[in-house]
Every structure is written in structure tokens, then in C-alpha cells.
Specification:
Length: 187
């Protein structure tokens, strides 16, 4: 993927495998798998696990590196199949708990091509990345809110069907109408 995006994985000026930050004598940290560099400073980090390995719990190491290198504006956690892209929208230099983009290359119909163009080596720009991440986050929040709003409550369903339904509007009747009301709202 990164070779296709224009990175020379063999050039240590562009990509440093097993990158280490100085965490001090008291904290021994494992190296991050890949640091993608520009002008000797990390732009973003990649923590890679074996294909099929669950990614839960591995974001902590990525977050440590993210906090230690404030010039790095993105962290990527992947097992080659599942990809999670993190940034620091909530607090500067503190990696967000939730990724702004997720991708499963085996199951997603539409890979995030628009986002991958932001990662191209020649056009990589941290402020463009932040803008993309913010827009994606806002869109995800809006989709979640609209989904919640379009999921009709019992009160809304009762109000919508009260002039249509001849039966007593018991909870079971209202529940049977909820999918119909939701479908009508979507239409």
C-alpha cells in the first residue's frame, strides 16, 4: 500500500522500521513498526500486527508514540486486513480513542480512496489530513445522529399511526408498526 502511495520502504529518510522514541530510563517501550518521515521527523506511525490478529489493545503503544512525537499527526493500526487511522482531533498530541477512518479490505465495498489520496507521499500535508479527519468525524457524528432520529420512538410511532390503526394502541401494536414507520421515514 505505502509503495503504491509513493513511499520507498527501503529509504530510511522516508521510512524507518522499528522506530524508537526516548521515553526515559524509567519507561522501556517497544519500537513502533514504521515511522514515515519527512525532513528527519515523523509524519505518521504504523503499528502492524499479523494478518487476522485482533487489534484490540494495541492502540496504546501507538498512542504513546503519537504523544512523544508531536510532529506526527496520524497513527495507523493494522493487521493488513483491518486498518484504523487515528489523529488528535479531541486534544492536541493525544491520539483520539476512536479512529476517524476504518477499513476492512476483505469486507468493505468501497475502500477509502479519497482518504488514501491524502496519504500520497508527494502531496501529504498534515493540515489537509486534519481537515479530512475533522470532516469525516463530523460526518460520522451526523450519520449516527440521523440514524438515531430516524429510528422512531414509541411515542412518535404512536402519534404517526393513531389515525391509521383501528386496534387498541398497546405496546405490541406500536412495536409492530416501528419498522413500517422507519421505512416510511427513509422513503
Amino acid at each position: 500500500l505505502f509503495t503504491l502511495l509513493g513511499y520507498d520502504m527501503t529509504d530510511p529518510r522516508q521510512v524507518m522500521p522499528e522506530f524508537k522514541c526516548d521515553f526515559g530510563k524509567e519507561r522501556s517501550r517497544l519500537p513502533i513498526d514504521w515511522a514515515f518521515m519527512r525532513d528527519g521527523k515523523p509524519m505518521f506511525f504504523v503499528e502492524a500486527k499479523a494478518a487476522g490478529k485482533k487489534l484490540t489493545g494495541y492502540d496504546e503503544q501507538l498512542a504513546d508514540y503519537f504523544a512523544k512525537a508531536p510532529e506526527a499527526k496520524m497513527g495507523i493500526l493494522t493487521n493488513g486486513v483491518t486498518w484504523r487511522f487515528f489523529t488528535d482531533l479531541s486534544s492536541a498530541n493525544i491520539m483520539d480513542k476512536e479512529p476517524f477512518v476504518k477499513c476492512d479490505v476483505l469486507n468493505d465495498e468501497h475502500p477509502p480512496i479519497e482518504f488514501l489520496t491524502v496519504l500520497q507521499r508527494e502531496s501529504y500535508n498534515a493540515s489537509l489530513l486534519a481537515t479530512y479527519a475533522q470532516r469525516t468525524r463530523q460526518q460520522n457524528l451526523l450519520v449516527a445522529e440521523l440514524t438515531r432520529l430516524l429510528e422512531p420512538s414509541s411515542e412518535f410511532t404512536k402519534m404517526a399511526i393513531q389515525n391509521l390503526e383501528t386496534r387498541n394502541l398497546k405496546e405490541s401494536v406500536i412495536e409492530s408498526w416501528k419498522p413500517v414507520v422507519a421505512s416510511a421515514l427513509n422513503e
